[in-house]
Design goal:
Elements (H helix, E strand, L loop, with lengths): L7 H26 L1 H31 L7 E12 L2 E10 H24 L6 H20 L3 H19 L6 H34 L1 H4 L9 H12 L3 H18 L8 H4 L5 H10 L4 H8 L1 H5 L2 H22 L5 H21 L3 H28 L17 H15 L5 H14 L5 E2 L2 E2 H28 L47 H18 L12 H23 L11 H4 L3 H6 L14 H23 L16 H7 L4 H50 L4 H29 L1
Antiparallel strand pairs: 1-2, 3-4
């Protein structure tokens, strides 16, 4: 065992330390050192702990790479957590190729995003609170990927969900942000039910078959117990494999925003842009892909479950891509792009090419984090306006942002030899050559691969639309907004302009409910707005400006990896002086190397119509770029301007998510309201209250009747005794008469 492995607890411990420092001393540091110096210190601490975790993780990964493939697994037990009759769950960390690959993504990109956030959030009053949430998120995400059992994964799973809720609703005084946070939290709970059920089934299956398998270790949720043994049970019980796989997939759909549980992710853009980049593009949303990759032995045993994964992933990829065409908010375009790209990853997992899914996780983390951070730089340059219809020709003003975003855009669009092209084309190739996702004799993966070309074309077109409306076109559309006008819609007759989003503004927005702010705070806010509106509003006097180095340095680093990581990971994965390794071999599970378990079959060298597939792979991204440039090179089309009446109804329908979000939200909110009203007016008022009130009425009547008897007068009681005695005497005489008659 390498000595560096002993430091694995620091990878999680350092972000926890950063969280505690922010919580207990963050405000004190700022108060003691002053706002400017204090915030720099707080930001430096938050960034440093994540960067230190990255450095330690890199040391461990390098030592791991030196080992033979079958030896790349080390489990370090920290202490016992649960140890009861029949179940043992220790706190144990797993060092293997998959976990350390995720550690590199989380801490490497995470440290860059932390650095970016020090500039982006520089004017935020709750500076320590923001970085405490961010550090805590990193700690939980590392717990999710490093834990050696499903219980620790579940702790991390719920922890990142909590941090996502806190960060989406960071500007909680804006009710829209609070609503978006609630929506994300509640939607993910639906998926968590599936994950929990899958865990229970796994523990039940292993514990009830322990004797036949010769298992004496009661760590039923630990991967080193599950992965080598559960496949043997599935050989005689394939139905259980499907049940467990589908339960786990429901959990993955919630966290990785797949249909039908995707609808929380677009609203999550209400949070600050660094949050969108870290949580909702590079790390948390890939947790579902990580889960499927870790538990691939379960999915490999069920062709039905694998087919469902492919179908859902492909549908989500196309569905979200179409919705992106109807968006005007630059972050919303990237949000639906994320949902779509996650669909590609699930297609790869469904066809059994889990390493390819992780390949796209890695490349996507680079170019999507770059695009989100770049969009934040654009928003920062444009007075916090997120509407692309108010942009245009920004490449003249923010050259670094434009150049770096251009690289990220070309990567996601699939320009040949960029990182996104390598991983996306690999997904399509392995899908067409796969034989894992078979449903009733139909090769679902084969057809999904061909259809995925269409999703790739749509991606290139809508991303070109975003870039042209933002940086190209020759129009500087914000100059059409007269000075002092706060809403562009006021200057377009009958134009239904969406309200500018203030999700990324340093202010929390007006408290229209009169709930959070005091009267003095509201008066001070309005006074500030009255005197300083010209500093914040986007109008013809505004001059876009480049972001500070703390924000553009992460963009440059991410642009480099967005350009070159694909070819390095695909063909030259390794380090100088080390033996050359393909990513496929690197991510092959240790159990496969050791025991030769069944591995999902895909045959990349047996692809039907291979020349056509290769030709489409090279040309589809270029074709999409050409189509997008041809449509938008003149600027904003009138059919996509502020007058929604001129929009194509299909584009409007797509922009509104084809009515799905509205239907689901209204069904649950209005349906819940109707159900609550029924419980209130009928069950509570009539049934419960009716029974209680009816019982009271009956008892009240009986009491009144008893009141006539219980007068408190002695003569009355004597009369009652006389009547009672007479009645008894009469009954006795009657009974004797009856006996005498029978005699």
């Amino acid at each position: 065992m390498a000595k560096s492995f002993e430091l694995i607890f620091l990878v999680i411990g350092l972000p926890i330390l950063g969280f505690l420092i922010q919580c207990f001393w963050g405000k004190a540091i700022i108060d003691r050192m002053g706002i400017a110096a204090g915030r720099k210190t707080v930001g430096a601490i938050a960034t440093s702990v994540v960067a230190a975790s990255f450095a330690i993780g890199l040391m461990i990964l390098l030592d791991l790479a030196k080992m033979a493939p079958g030896d790349r697994l080390h489990i370090r037990t920290m202490f016992d957590w649960i140890n009861i009759a029949g179940l043992h769950i220790p706190v144990e960390l797993r060092i293997d190729t998959l976990s350390m690959t995720m550690v590199m993504i989380i801490t490497g990109i995470g440290s860059l995003i932390h650095l970016y956030a020090t500039g982006y959030m520089a004017e935020e009053q709750d500076y320590p609170r923001f970085f405490s949430y961010l550090n805590l998120f990193v700690a939980f995400m590392l717990t999710l990927v490093l834990g050696n059992n499903l219980a620790l994964l579940f702790i991390g799973w719920e922890g990142v969900g909590l941090c996502s809720y806190l960060l989406i609703g960071f500007w909680y005084k804006d009710f829209a942000n609070s609503g978006a946070a609630n929506k994300a939290f509640i939607t993910n709970r639906v998926g968590d039910v599936g994950l929990a059920l899958g865990m229970f089934l796994i523990a039940f299956l292993l514990s009830t078959n322990s004797k036949s398998l010769g298992i004496t270790d009661s760590r039923w949720l630990s991967y080193d117990v599950i992965l080598p043994n559960i496949g043997k049970i599935f050989e005689t019980n394939p139905g259980m494999a499907t049940a467990i796989a589908l339960c786990l997939f429901v959990g993955a759909c919630g966290k990785s925003a797949q249909f039908p549980l995707y609808l929380w992710l677009p609203d999550a853009m209400a949070g600050p842009t660094p949050v969108s980049a870290l949580i909702h593009a590079a790390t948390m949303v890939t947790a579902g892909v990580f889960l499927l990759t870790r538990m691939q032995v379960v999915f490999a045993a069920s062709a039905v479950a694998s087919s469902i994964v492919v179908i859902v992933g492909l549908f989500t990829a196309i569905f979200a891509a179409l919705i992106a065409f109807g968006q005007t908010d630059i972050k919303k375009v990237l949000a639906y792009s994320t949902v779509s790209q996650l669909g590609f990853m699930f297609v790869a997992c469904g066809v059994g090419a889990y390493w390819v899914g992780m390949f796209h996780v890695i490349t996507h983390a680079f170019f999507k984090a770059l695009l989100f951070l770049g969009s934040g730089a654009v928003i920062h340059a444009m007075a916090h306006d997120q509407d692309m219809r108010n942009y245009g020709s920004l490449s003249k003003y923010i050259k670094i942002t434009w150049a770096t975003m251009l690289i990220g855009y070309l990567a996601i669009a699939g320009l040949p030899y960029t990182s996104g092209w390598f991983s996306k084309e690999e997904i399509i190739h392995v899908a067409i050559g796969s034989k894992q996702a078979m449903l009733n004799g139909v090769n679902i993966g084969y057809y999904a691969g061909w259809i995925a070309f269409g999703a790739a074309l749509l991606t290139a077109i809508y991303m070109t639309r975003m870039m042209m409306l933002t940086f190209g076109g020759g129009q500087q559309r914000w100059k059409l907004i007269p000075a002092g006008a706060h809403d562009h819609a006021d200057h377009h007759d009958d134009h239904a302009h969406e309200a500018h989003s203030h999700a990324d503004h340093a202010h929390q927005g007006e408290d229209t409910e009169g709930f959070f702010y005091t009267d003095d705070e509201m008066a001070a806010m309005h006074s500030h707005e009255d005197h300083d509106d010209h500093h914040h509003a986007l109008d013809e006097t505004h001059v876009p400006h480049e972001v500070p180095p703390s924000m553009w340095i992460p963009l440059v680093v991410l642009a480099f990896f967005s350009l070159f990581s694909g070819v390095w990971l695909k063909d030259y994965f390794g380090w100088f002086g080390q033996k050359k390794m393909l990513l496929e071999n690197w991510l092959t599970p240790v159990e496969t190397w050791r025991h030769g378990h069944h591995h999902a079959e895909y045959h990349p060298h047996e692809i039907p119509y291979e020349q056509i597939v290769a030709m489409l792979g090279y040309s589809i991204g270029i074709a999409g770029i050409i189509i997008g440039v041809a449509w938008y090179f003149r600027g904003l089309p009138k059919s996509e301007g502020f007058d929604m009446k001129k929009w194509n109804p299909l584009r409007v329908f797509a922009g509104n998510q084809f009515g799905y979000d509205k239907t689901v939200v209204e069904s649950f909110s209005e349906g819940g309201n109707a159900f609550g009203t029924f419980l209130w007016k009928f069950v509570d008022n009539k049934v419960v209250d009716g029974a209680v009130n009816g019982l009271g009425t009956v008892l009240g009547g009986l009491s009144k009747g008893a009141g006539f008897v219980q007068t408190g007068l002695a003569r009355g009681y004597a009369l009652m005794m006389l009547l009672g005695s007479a009645a008894i005497l009469g009954y006795v005489i009657y009974a004797l008469a009856q006996v005498g008659g029978r005699g």
